[in-house]
Each structure stands twice: as C-alpha cells, then as structure tokens.
Amino acid sequence: MYRIDHEDEGLDYRRRYQGLIGVNSKVPIRDRSILGLVYTPGVAEVCLEIVDHPESAFDLTCRGNTVAIISDGSDLFGREGGSPEAVLPILESKSVLFKTFAGVDAFPIALDITDPIEIVNT
What we know:
This protein is an alpha+beta fold.
C-alpha cells in the first residue's frame, strides 16, 4: 500500500513548486502586434468600453470567473493568533480545488487585520 508521509512530503512538495498556484496568461504574446492588443494601446479601448458598458467587464476581463478567498488567519486549526503568512497554504489549497473541480480562478488574500469591522471595510 502506498503511503505518503504528509508532514515531510507536503513541505517538500510546496517547496519544490514555491507554493501551489501561479498566474498564467491565456494569451501567448508572440510579437509586438499581440503585445499592443494586450497592453497599450489596445487596453485603452477595453477600458473605455467598460466605462460605457460596465456589464461588459464580465466578458472582457477575468471578473466573471474569478473569486477571492480571504482570511486573516486568526483561527488556524483551532489555534488562536495565527498569521496571514501561516494561513496562505490553506488559501492556496482552496484555490487549487476551485480551479480543479469548478474551473473557477480563485486568488488567495491573507489579511494582516483581525478586527471584523476593519476586514469588512478593507
């Protein structure tokens, strides 16, 4: 039977990949003309379209398929006083699950704030 030593291999796995997630472009930039469409001057037309038609942001940006996974790390495995840095592996893991099982891009956001009102206002 195959057994994974989760304590050591989990650390090694994340260390090898420097975390579990990254940002990959959907569009290969192969020449200057594509760069001009993706960034300046092409991006200006997209911005102006969204100004005139805010609902188009769902079709023209990642907005329609992106969520944030947010935590302050204050209750890390039942331990009070966790930190944003310590909760980031959990948030990354959840991001992987969102992408793998739902096709949703999920970005981890670890806040260095513990006051609930301040978190909401952030």
